[in-house]
Design brief:
Number of domains: 1
Order of helices and strands: EEHHEHEHHHEHEEEEEHEHEHEE
Oligomer: single chain
CATH class: Alpha Beta
Number of strands: 14
Strand content: 25-35%
Number of helices: 10
Bound molecules: zinc ion
Shape: globular
Radius of gyration: 18 Å
Length: 282
């Protein structure tokens, strides 16, 4: 299983990165190396799941996968920096000159997992005409907290977290690329402040991809329940006993060194900040 940090900019696109967009891929060889997946009848092909599709994410995503080959889009919440490029994806899947459903006559029904309002929000963002549906292109599926969703060799489980809107952290398990035959797990916080849910989400994972949009001191005046700081991300990592901490969702006005230094005051394991295009083999 491989994680590509396609877009790591917090809250809005930055000069060096799109807003939130992460690609989890399982190469065919990893599926074939797992007796459990083979026995379960999972097709031995490349699989791709996109975690969040914020502003600009769809552009950079195309460096790693043809959007028509994505198997599911899993949205943490419906703030624009996490979902706005669904509109572009709709155009791509519908009107691509060779692969678009308008041309082939075959609707892709791409699973789009998200909060309860995901279908309504997608239509509003795109500006569909009254009566026009996106349902042929997208198959919208609302999350139920704690209920795992299977996408080929991957299992995605949503955990409710602490943010002003319905928001989830996503726990993703799949076959390891570095330890053949074993299962690895990563957790992605989405947007959240410190809460029990985010610690449960991260419990014992191999890699925690944690937002750290705020800074201690600088953002203390903002009401609670919006974002983690590097320090609070470090607390989550320490309490949950994660194998590795990767900080993300830093807005362009933040210094990654500050977030990392804060995290290291709380968490003694390997820690770093994500950059656009980084690849983690798990
Ligand atoms: Zn955000
Ligand atoms: Zn948000």
């Amino acid at each position: 299983m491989r994680l590509v940090t396609v877009g790591v900019a917090g809250s809005f696109p930055g000069p060096d990165s799109p807003a939130s967009c992460y690609l989890v891929q399982v190469p065919a060889a990893d599926v074939a190396a797992s007796p459990e997946l083979v026995a379960a009848g999972v097709e031995a092909r490349d699989w791709s799941v996109v975690l969040d599709l914020g502003n600009g994410g769809l552009g950079a995503l195309q460096r790693y996968v043809d959007p028509a080959d994505v198997d599911a889009v899993a949205l943490s919440h419906l703030h624009p920096d996490h979902c706005s490029d669904l509109s572009g994806l709709y155009v791509y899947l519908r009107y691509h000159p060779h692969r678009g459903s308008h041309r082939t006559g075959v609707d892709p029904h791409l699973p789009v997992l998200g909060p309860a309002a995901v279908a309504e929000r997608a239509r509003a963002m795109y500006g569909t005409e009254p009566g026009e549906s996106m349902d042929g292109v997208f198959a919208f599926r609302p999350w139920t907290a704690g209920q795992a969703v299977r996408v080929g060799p991957l299992t995605v489980t949503p955990f409710r977290v602490f943010h002003p809107v319905e928001a989830y952290g996503l726990r993703v398990s799949g076959p390891s690329s570095v330890r053949p035959g074993e299962t690895v797990t990563l957790a992605y916080t989405g947007d959240t402040d410190l809460c029990d849910g985010v610690v449960e989400l991260a419990r014992g994972v191999d890699l925690l991809l944690s937002e750290a949009a705020f800074e201690e001191g600088r953002d203390d005046g903002v009401e609670p329940g919006i974002h983690l700081t590097g320090r609070r991300a470090g607390q989550v990592a320490a309490r949950a006993g994660v194998g590795r901490l990767v900080l993300t969702h830093l807005p362009a006005w933040s210094d990654p060194r500050v977030a990392l230094a804060e995290a290291r005051t709380e968490y003694g394991g390997p820690a770093e900040t994500a950059a656009a295009g980084d690849v983690y083999e798990l």
